[in-house]
Amino acid sequence: VLFRSLVTTTQLHNLYPHDRAALCLHLLALVETRSHAKLFQLGHVLQHSRPYSEVAVYAIGCYYYARSEFEKAGRYFAKATDIDASFAEAWVVLGHCYATLQEGEHALSVYRRAMNMFPGLAECATFFGVQQIRTLSARSAKASLQGALLASPYDPLILNELGTLAVKERDY
What we know:
The chain is an all-alpha fold. The protein contains ten helices and no strands.
């Protein structure tokens, strides 16, 4: 399934090479399929064609993220948010880097900031709630996840995390 999505996002990126949403979707497919060489190549192409742009920096961060070099990836994602503070994808994955590096307070701070900047984006509240579960703040996690559920009522990730929380809290 992932490789079929990569074929689709490659076609989409070829049709709309300057569309940020299409590019971010393609980069996600490359990360998920661990296509390191293609990420490296695309990062360099973007760096040469759009030097110092948020998407070029983000693409380089995606390369390091796919290689599990989360500290380096985080630096690039932070730089992408410095270049364009409205780059939601970069904020979310920056939070993921902190969470993966066991820097829970930093992850919460990034997710909280993203929630404030992008109030309609359910992913921000979802990952904020997930991180709160990790830091054993169940009541706050439930509130965050229920807020995310209002924005995206059929999202399986949100429903799964609410289920996980219910099991942890023995709230069947």
